[in-house]
Amino acid sequence: MGTQAGVATGVTFACGDVVAFPGVAAAECYWSGERGLTGDVSDALDLEPGSNVSLVPGVLRRLCDDATERCDCEGPANASSSLALAPDPPLVPDALIEGPTTAGACEGLTLGSSQSTGSGGRAMTYAWNATAAVDEEWAPGLNASTLNATAERNLALKAVVRNANAGTGSPDFTVSSKELVAIAGGGVVGLEVTLLLENFLGGVSEPSEPFLVAIRTDNPPNLQIVGGTIQSTTRPKPLSVRADAIASSCDGRPAADRAVSIQFELSKVLASGALETTGLVSSSKDQRLFKLAAHSLEAATDYVLATTATDESGGANVTSYVSLAVGRAGFERRGRFSEQSRPRRI
């Protein structure tokens, strides 16, 4: 193992020992070879593409072989500088939304983006958008009541999007219960939410797949699929999908009295787009988990896992659908399935 500037290859040290750049005190480096210096600069928040990176003078010198050269004549390198460049190929984020696909108006709604990738180790800029699916029977100009409700709905939806995008945006899209009641009161039966991400390196994502949330004015259970409603796996891997659910709190029940039962039904997506029930049953004793052994599913095939949570006391139920793409070994792809028709937008 070689050494450079007295430090062995692969051993981390303070980057500021050999180079200078904005935020260098928060960065660690290591020698990746005789002429290669690699740094972890995710915490050097002031370092961006275009920042100046300079060599600390008097520390490094040219590699010299004492057996063939007069190394005592070699002096240390003077200060030199260059500009920090963005990665090539560029690091591009992938925007993914997770959360419940049905929301009770009195509960409010929170969608997250923790499944997204490509941040480069730093906070990203979030740009959310939401359009409303309106009940076909809603007539906003029929009377003063519906006209006012429509106006309140529009104000509430604009406020939600504005708050989500304030500053550099929020990693969560949050609708308070008051806002969601106003939105639902204006004839809205669903929201279509999308997300655009930009990292500090200038990489911009494609818009996320539209995330559809049905809005209900009764008290359905809160149901969320861990990992999101678009998932992928490969045939040689065991399958495990988890659903978290609890009955609504809108009627004032304590958590101990809000038990739900959960049922799963797995269907295969045929070439025509129709669904064919597989009859496969989860091997897990935990009703929240749908588990199958490796090789249970067909490779290069799409499936839909319908997950239904039922309030054991009140009887209300809600169903969420997971689009599951199964690839061959070493191959994964994102599936796509929507159980809702295209909404009428406002």
Question: Helix and strand layout, with pairings?
Answer:
Blueprint: E1 3-4, E2 7-8, E3 13-14, E4 19-20, E5 28-31, E6 37-40, E7 52-55, E8 81-83, E9 102-104, E10 109-111, E11 125-134, H1 144-164, E12 173-175, H2 177-185, E13 188-198, E14 211-216, E15 222-225, E16 230-234, E17 239-246, E18 260-269, E19 275-277, E20 289-292, E21 301-311, E22 317-327
Parallel strand pairs: 9-14, 16-22
Antiparallel strand pairs: 1-2, 3-5, 4-7, 5-6, 7-8, 10-12, 11-13, 13-14, 15-17, 17-20, 18-19, 18-21, 21-22
Task: Describe this protein with a few key phrases.
single chain; four-stranded mixed sheet; mainly beta; 22 strands; 346 residues; Immunoglobulin-like; disordered C terminus
Structure notes:
This protein is mainly β and 346 residues long. It has 3 domains: 3-83, no CATH class; 88-217, Sandwich (Immunoglobulin-like), CATH 2.60.40; 220-346, Sandwich (Immunoglobulin-like), CATH 2.60.40.10. The protein contains 2 helices and 22 strands. The protein has helices at residues 144-164, 177-185; strands at 3-4, 7-8, 13-14, 19-20, 28-31, 37-40, 52-55, 81-83, 102-104, 109-111, 125-134, 173-175, 188-198, 211-216, 222-225, 230-234, 239-246, 260-269, 275-277, 289-292, 301-311, 317-327. The strands form 7 sheets. The protein has a 5-stranded mixed sheet, with no helix packed on it. Helix 1 (144-164) packs across helix 2 (177-185). The protein is elongated and about 90 Å long. The relative contact order is 0.13. Residues 331-346 have low confidence and may be disordered.
